[in-house]
Amino acid sequence: MFGLFGGRFVAETLMPLILDLEEHWAKAKVDPQFQAELKALSTYYAGRPSKLYFAEGLTRHLREVASAGGSNGGAKVFFKREDLNHTGSHKINNTMGQILLARRMGKKRIIAETGAGQHGVATATVCALFGMPCVVYMGATDIERQAPNVFRMKMLGAEVRPVTSGTGTLKDAMNDALRDWVANVTDTYYIIGTVAGPHPYPAMVRDFQSIIGVEARAQILKAEGRLPDKLVACIGGGSNAMGLFHPFLDDRDVAMDAVEAAGLGLNSGKHAASLQGGKPGVLHGNRTFLLMDDDGQIAEAHSISAGLDYPGIGPEHSWLHDIKRVNYVAATDDEAVEAFKLLSRTEGILPALEPAHALAHVARIAPKMAKDKIIVMNLCGRGDKDIFALAERLGVKL
Ligand SMILES: *Cc1c(COP(=O)(O)O)cnc(C)c1O
Q: 375 near 229, Cβ under 8 Å?
C-alpha cells in the first residue's frame, strides 16, 4: 500500500495467482541471473542505456523568451531520451521485465490490455521475441481510432480482441483482461502496462521503469557534477514519471513536477487529469484517484494524446501527491501541440504528444528559473505515431 492508496481489490480466484506473482517477483528482483538476463535484453535488444541529452537549441530559445520578458533566466534543459528505445518509448522496459518473469513462472500465454495501442505493441513485440502467444484486449472504439497500432500488433503475431462493453475504451479492455485472467489462471500471465493494477503490479512496473532514473542520476552527475534541480514527466497511468522520479525521491533538493493532460481545460470536463480533477475510488484492482461522474461511475478521459487518456493514475502518485513530494500540474491539448512544434523546430526531434505535455510545462517554467538551474525531462516517446492526429488537428490532409 502507498498510504491510503493501492491494495488488491480483485476476485477471490485471483488471490493465489497474485500472491504467487508477488513471491516470484520478490525472488527475481534479487536474483543476479534474472538481472543479468534483463540487462542483456535491455542493452542488445532495446538499446539501453538511453542517452541524457543537453537540449542546447531549446535552452537557447527559452533564454531568449526570458530575455524578451526582461529576465536574465533560463534553466538548462536535459532530456532523457526514452524516445530512442526499440518500439519508440519507455514501454519496452516494462514488457521485457514482465515477460522474463512470466517465463520464469512457467506461464505459456500472455494477455494485455491497451488503449492507444502503445503497450499492446510493446507486449506483442516481446511475445514475438520469446515465441509466446499473445492476446491483446482493446476497446472497439480504440481499435477504430488506432488502426496503425492494431496493424503493428497483428504483424507481430498478436491476436487483438475487440471489447464492445461499456464505451469500448481502455477501462473496458482492462475489465476484460482481468476476466480472461480469472478464467485462465494456471497458464496465463497478465502484463499490465503502467503503474496500476493490484499490488504488486504498481511497485513492480515502477521497479522495471526505474532504470530511467537510475541511469539519469548517474548521467547528470557525470555531465554536470551535481543532481538536477527539477525533474519533469508526463502522466498517463504514471509509469514513465515513476521510473524517472523514484531513484531521486530521497534527494530532498530535487523537485519533481508531473504533468497531467488537461485536454480542453481542467474546467471543461474534457480532460484526463485524474489527480487534479478526480477523487479516490477503486478501479483495476487498486484504490487511487479516478475520474468519476456524480454517481461514482468511471468517466471518460479526454486528451489529444491517446496515451494519456486513462481515467486513473497509479496509486503511488496519489500518495506522493498526498505527502506533497511531487507537484502535479497540467497542460492542455493546445499547449501540447505548441510544444510539439517548438521541439521539432529547436531540436529536430518530433516528440510523442504525451511528453509534449511535459515539454509545455518545461517551456513555462524554464524561463523563470536561473541560468544555472538544471531541469531533466523524460522525453518518453517519439512522435512518429502521432503525425496523423497532428495533421488532422492542423487541418492537413496526408
Ligand atoms: C503509454 C505512454 C505514456 C503514458 O503512460 P505512463 O504510464 O504514464 O508513462 C506516456 N508517453 C508515452 C510515449 C507512452 O507511450
A: yes
Interval between CA 108 and ligand 1 midpoint (Å): 27
Digit-coded pLDDT (tens) for 296-351: 888 888 889 888 888 899 999 999 999 999 999 999 999 999 999 999 999 999 99
What are the DSSP calls for 237-251, one per residue? SSHHHHHHHGGGTT-
Whether residue 142 is predicted with pLDDT greater than 90 in this model: the reply is no
Q: Give the Å distance between the CA of 276 and the centre of ligand 1.
A: 18
Return the DSSP state at 86.
G
Rounded to the nearest whole angstrom, what is the distance from the C-alpha of residue 70 to the centroid of ligand 1? 36
What pLDDT is recorded for position 125? 98
The answer for 263, left when phi > 0, alpha when psi is -120 to 50, beta otherwise, is left
Residue among 234, 309, 340 whose CB has most ligand 1 atoms within 8 A, to mutate: 234
247, 217 contact by CB (below 8 A): yes
C-alpha cell at 274: 485524474
Q: Determine the Cα–Cα distance for residues 188 and 173; give it in Å rounded to an integer.
A: 17
User: What are 239-272's pLDDT values in tens digits?
Assistant: 999 999 999 999 999 999 999 999 999 999 899 9
Q: Which atom of ligand 1 is nearest to the CA of 314?
A: 7
pLDDT digits (tens, 9 = 90+) for 118-137: 999 999 999 999 999 999 99
Evaluate if residue 224 carries a pLDDT over 90.
yes
Q: Torsions phi, psi of 96, nearest 5?
A: -65, -45
| Ligand 1: lining residues by beta carbon, under 6 Å | 89, 91, 118, 194, 234-240, 307-308, 352, 354-355, 380-381
Contact in structure between 115 and 385 (CB atoms under 8 Å) = no
Kindly give the distance from the C-alpha atom of residue 68 to the centroid of ligand 1, in angstroms, as a whole number: 34
pTM of the model: 0.97
Residue 64 has pLDDT above 90, yes or no: yes
The number of the ligand 1 atom at minimal distance from the alpha carbon of 355 is 11
Cis peptide before 247 (omega within 30 of 0): no
* 219 pLDDT higher than 90: yes
Whole-number pLDDT of residue 293: 87
Domains and CATH numbers, the chain: 12-46+91-206 (3.40.50.1100), 52-88+210-393 (3.40.50.1100)
Which atom number of ligand 1 is nearest to the Cα of residue 243?
9
- Smallest CA-to-CA distance from 160 within 183, 184, 176 is with 176
